[in-house]
Structures are given as structure tokens and as C-alpha cells.
Write a structure and sequence with these properties.
Blueprint (H helix, E strand, L loop, with lengths): L4 H24 L4 H10 L3 H13 L7 H16 L13 E6 L15 H17 L3 H6 L1 H4 L14 E12 L8 E11 L4 E9 L35 E13 L2 E3 L1 H7 L34 H20 L22
Antiparallel strand pairs: 1-3, 2-5, 3-4, 4-5, 5-6
Helix pairs in contact: 2-3, 4-5
Length: about 350
């Protein structure tokens, strides 16, 4: 999702899309659909037409504009149907999205092409972020009125709201076959003063179920796993096809918005003494959290403990930004320049 996309979504894309659908619907009323369908299914060349229709229907996600339709669907779906209130624990809960490997997603090794994982991660992240942070997006978009984001001089920051993708890393474990279904489990793992880090697991479809659901979008559940001393928890990783880690940045114009401002505007942060943007790192410093009861009341200490746990992985991911300094412009030469890239 590029910076500025959301600033155009409501004033441009929604009206243009609605106008296009209305016009198409109006024109469709003048067509004799019974005759068209009958000729399509029974006329000369029907076999080729039906096979082509089946092929297009089973590969729609990989067709031109398929990715755009999936992205816009996630925006509209969650802005229209998100519950007004989510429990604050939902901040670290999974968003689950199902998909299937189309034939056009399959490479010469007869499994899902590695490159297509990144398009799927785009969709899964969009579902997660628009569902969790939906209330905060319009609030920050109207920052002139709400005064949620101030610069270092205390002045209200102006500009269009947008989300920028900074980087994506993907680790592949098990292949996904042609036409095989799978699930994408995405959740927030951590944040710092600039970046929001999101993990996405590609999971075998139907093998893993959560213990509960936060809102109206519900499915089957499983019982919580209880263990006694000496017993290990189930190895959920055996159901993972791949894992991706992404980082997002929130912007008002060119001004970077601290992720906790988005969380607070969406009602997902418990109150923290001194606030969430204190200390040298603007993330609460290195306060000793003491003993934390995982079954206790959800408070700022539990949020901070979860953030720190995820940050141990996110910091290594962030360190890869420095690899751009390895580029020397071919100072010692290059192999060659090749066609058809």
C-alpha cells in the first residue's frame, strides 16, 4: 500500500468505482441475457468458451487488476463491517484470510511460485490493518480537526494520510501445490518509533483453529491447550508453509506518525503512566516490567512485554536496511547486461 493511496480511496476511487458500476448496471438492463447465455452454452464453439470461462474463474486472482480488486475489497469490507469496539487484546491477535494457488500462480516446479507470496501478503496485511486500525485512519485523515499528531513545536501536522510498505522478508518451509488451499495468519508483532512490524504465516488450510474470536467474523474454534510439568506444547510450526515479516510506516504528508498514535485513535491501547511515547526511544524506555501474570487483566505491562518479545526479531529484520551500502555501482566490474528481464 503506497503512501497516499488511502487519501485517494474515498474521494476518488469509491466515487469512480460506484459510477462505473451504476453505468454498467444501467447498460446491462438493455441486454437480452437469456439469449446471450443460451448462445454461449449451446452455440458453435461452446466447449472452448466454457473451458475458457472455467480457466478465468479459477485464475481470477492472478488476472490483470485481480490484485487491485482484492486490495479494494479488503478496504471496503472492513470499513463497512468492522465492529465499533474491539477488545484491546485484539492488538496482537491474528487476522485469517483464505486463498488458493491458481494455475497462473504455479511455476515450472509445479508449486506456488515464490514471487506470488508477496502479493498474497499484501492482501492479508490489508485485512489486518484496516480491521484493527479502521477507526484511526479517518481520525488521522482529519488531523486538522482532531489534532492527534503534533510536530516537535506543538503545531498540528497537515497532509494526506497514507501507509507505506518499507520492506518484506519471506522464509519458505514447505511448498504449496497447484489449486491447493491455504490460510494466511497475520498479526502485529511489534513496533518502534517509526515502523509497525507484521508477521504473516502461510498455514495449511483447516489444520489450525483459534480458541476464540473477537468480533462478528467467526468460525470453528479449538480448546485451549493445557499442559502439566514435563509436557510440551503442540508444534504448530509443522503446519506452516512459509512466514513473512513486513514493516509499515504511517504518514501525514511527509511526516512520520508514531504507530501508538494509530493504536490509541483505534482504542487498542490501555492507559500507560507517562504515556506511550516517552523515553529516549519514544517507546516507553527500558522500564522494568516485573512479574507479569499471563492470565491477569490486560494492561500496559502486558502490551509492552509482547512488543519487546516481537522486537527481538524485528530488530534483526530492520538491520537489513543497511545492506544498500553494499552496492558499489560495479566498481570492480559486472558479469554482463542481459535481455528479457
Amino acid at each position: 500500500m503506497a503512501v497516499g493511496t488511502l487519501s485517494l480511496f474515498f474521494p476518488v476511487f469509491i466515487p469512480a468505482g460506484a459510477a462505473g458500476l451504476i453505468y454498467a448496471g444501467h447498460r446491462a438492463t438493455f441486454l437480452d441475457w437469456r439469449t446471450i447465455i443460451t448462445e454461449f452454452l449451446t452455440g458453435p464453439g461452446r466447449t472452448s468458451r466454457i473451458l475458457l470461462l472455467v480457466f478465468l474463474a479459477s485464475n481470477w486472482k492472478s488476472l490483470p487488476l485481480g490484485w487491485t480488486v482484492r486490495i479494494f475489497h479488503s478496504f471496503i469490507f472492513h470499513f463497512a463491517r468492522r465492529p465499533k469496539i474491539l477488545p484491546q487484546r485484539a492488538l496482537f491477535h491474528y487476522s485469517i484470510t483464505s486463498s488458493r494457488t491458481s494455475l497462473l500462480d504455479t511455476d515450472y516446479n509445479i508449486h506456488k511460485s515464490n514471487s506470488t507470496y508477496f502479493a498474497d501478503v499484501d492482501i492479508s496485511r490489508s485485512h489486518l490493518v484496516t480491521h484493527l486500525l479502521g477507526p484511526g485512519m479517518p481520525a488521522l485523515g482529519a488531523n486538522d480537526k482532531n489534532k492527534l499528531v503534533l510536530d516537535k513545536d506543538g503545531k498540528v501536522v497537515k497532509g494526506s494520510f497514507g501507509i507505506g510498505l518499507g520492506a518484506v522478508f519471506c522464509s519458505f518451509r514447505r511448498e504449496i501445490g497447484p489449486m491447493q488451499g491455504y490460510e494466511m495468519w497475520s498479526r502485529i508483532v511489534s513496533w518502534d518509533r517509526k515502523w509497525l512490524y507484521i508477521v504473516t504465516h502461510f498455514v495449511v488450510k483447516g489444520k489450525v483453529k483459534p480458541t476464540s474470536w473477537d468480533g462478528r467474523f467467526k468460525g470453528s474454534t479449538r480448546s485451549k491447550v493445557t499442559t502439566t510439568d514435563g509436557c510440551d506444547l503442540p508444534d504448530w510450526s509443522k503446519y506452516i508453509h512459509a512466514t513473512a515479516l513486513s514493516k509499515y510506516v504511517f504518514k501525514l504528508g511527509r511526516f512520520t506518525v508514531h504507530p501508538t498514535i494509530m493504536f490509541e485513535a483505534s482504542g487498542l491501547l490501555p492507559e500507560r503512566p507517562g504515556g506511550w511515547r516517552t523515553g529516549e526511544d519514544e517507546c516507553g524506555g527500558d522500564v522494568d516490567l516485573g512479574e507479569i501474570d499471563p492470565k491477569g487483566e490486560w494492561d500496559w505491562k502486558m502490551v509492552e512485554a509482547e512488543r519487546r518479545k516481537g522486537l527481538e526479531y524485528a530488530q534483526h529484520f530492520g538491520a537489513l536496511d543497511g545492506t544498500n551500502t553494499l552496492f558499489d555501482g560495479g566498481e570492480d566490474g559486472a558479469i554482463g547486461k542481459f535481455p528479457v528481464g
